[in-house]
Each structure stands twice: as C-alpha cells, then as structure tokens.
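Researcher: For the record, we're logging two predictions in this thread. I'll number them. Prediction 1 follows.
Model: Prediction 1, sequence and structure:
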Amino acid sequence: MTADAGAQLRKGVVEYCVLGLLADEPKYGWELSEALVEANLIASIGTLYPLLGRLRDNGWVVTFDQPSGSGPVRKYYRLTAEGRAQLDRFRAQWAPFARTVTALIGEGRT
C-alpha cells in the first residue's frame, strides 16, 4: 500500500476509532494517544487534539476534568448520546463495506 493510500484510509476511520475507544469508559488524551499510536492510526499526540476538538465541536464527545494522583488535573473525554449514535451507524456500515472491498480486491489474489 502506498503511503498516500494508508494515510487516506487512516484519516477516514480514526475519528470512529476514537469513538470506539470511548465507548466503554471515558479516557484522557494520553490514553487515547497511546492506543492510536500503537495501532499506527496517528503519528503523535499532537495530531490527536485537533481531532478531539472536532469531535467536541460535533457534539460527539464532552470533556471533564479529574484530579490525578500522579500530577496535574487531567482532561477526560466522554462519549455523548450523539457520539454513540454516530459510532453505531459507523459500525453498521463498516462490516458490509469491508466485506465488499475485500471481495472486489480479492484478498490473496495475484
């Protein structure tokens, strides 16, 4: 896969991956960043905060501050009802989409 194709694929799904990470419980930025960097979906924490801002502006996440036992207060992100609805819509579309693409490109074809 060319770097451009990979970047486009990541850009198209990373917001929904963040929503998925927040589906079970609120998380703070560093936790989200570690998971996304490890999955090779973002390059660094610096690319995460603009994305979180867009999610907040869309009404898909809200923030709250919580004291940390090991340092300064942390800003946590929580999924809203609209964010959960967006994630549910994405989940419903993703599996059929992925199956269609796999069928068309013929995974394992030469």
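Researcher: Logged. Prediction 2.
Model: Prediction 2, sequence and structure:
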Amino acid sequence: MLKDLDAQPILAVSDLARARRFYGETLGLEEEGGDAPEGQAMTAYRTGATRLTLYVSDAAGTNEANALVWPVAGGIEEIVADLRAKGVTFERYDFPETTYEDGVHKSGDARMVWFRDPDGNILHLIQGM
C-alpha cells in the first residue's frame, strides 16, 4: 500500500519567519504555503517534484542525522559557492578515503556537502552516487 505513495519531508523549525528567510531567500525555494490546522504555524516549499513542509515545534533541530537530502546531477561546487556567498557554512566530517576542500567532501566520483538550517537541521547535497 505505502509503496505506491510519494513520501514528503517535514522539518521542525523554532521560528517560522527565520525559516522562511533561510529556505526562501538563502536556498531559493518557492513557498507554496499550506493548509495549516487551526493555530499551527507551518508552510510548504516546492523543491523539484517534492513538497517540503516546515512547522513550528519545540523539538526543532534536535535530530543529529540528515534531515533532508538533495541528489545533485552536477555542479555541486557552484551550488556551494552560491550558498557560501549567502552566508551558509558547511560541516566537515572525517570519513576514510575522503578529502575535504571548500565545503565539499570528495570520495572517488562522489561529492558530498552538509550544512545546517538556522535550527540545526542537517541538510545534505550529494552528487555522483
């Protein structure tokens, strides 16, 4: 039953206005809004064919694993340069047989990038896997 349904990511944020600036202005996602239940602060963004929902929660940023992953067909270095120019900083992890340069982890043909939203949710870009 579920195998035929599209899954959609949902992320907790602590400040919806700040999240809107980051996801809309910094990342360049198009806000779609959403049908928020009475009293619930939330919104949604279109990212490719996916709808990303953000909602306000006291649990925002408590996950220490990837919260959202974007597969990138090519040009990850240009994306990193654009995000860096907008103030995004990148995580550095030490993985075996992986180098790190200018925000990008490289392992063979794979290029990987991690960064956090203002609440600490870990966002990930991956090219070549």
